[in-house]
């Protein structure tokens, strides 16, 4: 079955089109646009009109691509920003009605579970392997026996602590301290990192983004520290020019690197493996199990979101 997954993330809106057969997810196409849906949500607890408009524009493009690729089922998933926003569920209702996507609002635990399923698709994960997913609004820490979702993400930390350009040392320490205090007791032997912060750090180290070369890359603790020092020393304009870094990710990459460093330090890990398989691939398995779409009434509040 050919399916589509749209990840309505705090920082980016992502697309995966894939063929799913016997539990295997084979990519057909991927897309990523920085839309910053979670802009201002940490403070106002509401999805704002401008970020919503950015997402809508991207969803229109994705809808056309899904139709061209003959996706039979499409699932749009909402994560941290939509969870935290008072109008989050109404926004999902509008997305469902306007674009014909099935929608699901993920809890932090749901997000962690689907991320582990995605990483494990096509490979085995040891019980002592930590999966790290640094998002815009939250960070997921996943092992075989635990699922932890923290209200610590690259957008959230940036909005709370990093106010100067480039960030001041006391701001960086405040962000690191907030992350450090939230980390639970775990004892992993190794780690796999997923999502935009981790893949961007790998791409910058390699001098450019190539998914095939980034997937499986070993990102060492020393490399993360060196990149954090470099990124935090540069102005936003200079960060936008770095090879391998999506320019629209530049405003939040410093906070993301802080989170990765603190996780590696907290658990005594010398490195993490970078994976291009993540939440999208876990959600693809959910999309394949969706019932056949039916024409019907508008979801509740579909026209009252914004």
Architecture blueprint of SSEs:
Blueprint: E1 2-8, E2 12-21, E3 24-34, H1 41-44, H2 49-68, E4 73-78, H3 80-84, H4 88-99, E5 102-105, H5 108-120, E6 129-134, E7 139-142, E8 147-150, H6 154-161, H7 169-182, E9 190-194, H8 196-206, H9 211-214, E10 218-220, H10 221-233, H11 236-239, H12 250-266, E11 271-274, H13 279-288
Parallel strand pairs: 1-4, 4-5, 6-9, 9-11
Antiparallel strand pairs: 1-2, 2-3, 6-7, 7-8, 10-11
Any key phrases for this structure?
single chain, six-stranded mixed sheet, 306 residues, alpha/beta, 44% helix, five-stranded mixed sheet
Number of helices: 13
Q: Main beta sheet, described?
A: 6 strands, mixed
Shape: globular
Oligomer: single chain
Strand pairing plus helix content: what structural class? alpha/beta
Strand percentage: 15-25%
Strand order of the largest sheet: 8-7-6-9-11-10
Low-confidence stretches: 299-303
The tally of strands reads: 11
* SSE order, one letter for each helix or strand: EEEHHEHHEHEEEHHEHHEHHHEH
Give the proportion of residues in helices.
40-55%
Q: Give the end-to-end Cα distance, rounded to a whole number of Å.
A: 34 Å
Radius of gyration: 18 Å
Q: What value does the average pLDDT take?
A: 92
What does this structure look like?
With 306 residues, the protein is α/β, with parallel strands linked by helices. Helix content is 44%, strand content 21%. The strands form 2 sheets. A 6-stranded mixed beta sheet has the order 8-7-6-9-11-10, sandwiched between helices. A 5-stranded mixed beta sheet has the order 3-2-1-4-5, sandwiched between helices. It starts with a strand and ends in an 18-residue tail after the last helix.
């Amino acid at each position: 079955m050919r399916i589509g997954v749209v990840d309505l993330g705090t920082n980016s809106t992502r697309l995966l089109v894939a063929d799913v057969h016997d539990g295997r997810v084979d990519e057909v196409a991927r897309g990523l646009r920085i839309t910053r849906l979670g802009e201002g949500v940490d403070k106002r607890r509401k999805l704002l009109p401008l970020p919503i408009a950015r997402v809508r524009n991207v969803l229109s493009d994705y809808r056309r691509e899904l139709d061209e690729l003959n996706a039979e089922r499409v699932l749009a998933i909402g994560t941290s920003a939509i969870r935290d926003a008072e109008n989050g569920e109404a926004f999902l209702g509008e997305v469902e009605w306007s674009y014909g996507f099935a929608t699901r609002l993920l809890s932090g635990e749901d997000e962690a579970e689907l991320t582990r399923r995605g990483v494990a698709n096509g490979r085995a994960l040891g019980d002592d392997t930590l999966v790290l997913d640094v998002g815009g609004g939250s960070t997921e820490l996943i092992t075989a026996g635990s699922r932890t979702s923290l209200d610590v993400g690259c957008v959230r930390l940036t909005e709370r602590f990093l106010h100067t350009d480039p960030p001041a040392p006391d701001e960086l320490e405040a962000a690191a301290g907030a992350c450090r205090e939230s980390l639970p007791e775990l004892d992993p032997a190794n780690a796999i990192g997923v999502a935009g912060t981790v893949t961007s750090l790998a791409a910058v180290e390699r001098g450019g983004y190539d998914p095939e070369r980034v997937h499986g890359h070993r990102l060492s603790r020393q490399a993360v520290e060196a990149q954090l020092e470099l990124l935090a020393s540069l102005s936003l304009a200079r960060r936008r020019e770095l090879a391998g870094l999506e320019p629209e990710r530049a405003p939040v990459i410093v906070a993301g690197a802080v989170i990765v460093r603190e996780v590696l330090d907290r658990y005594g890990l010398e490195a993490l493996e970078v994976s291009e398989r993540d939440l999208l691939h876990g959600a693809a398995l959910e999309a394949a199990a969706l019932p056949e779409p039916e024409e019907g009434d508008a979801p509740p509040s579909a026209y009252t979101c914004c």
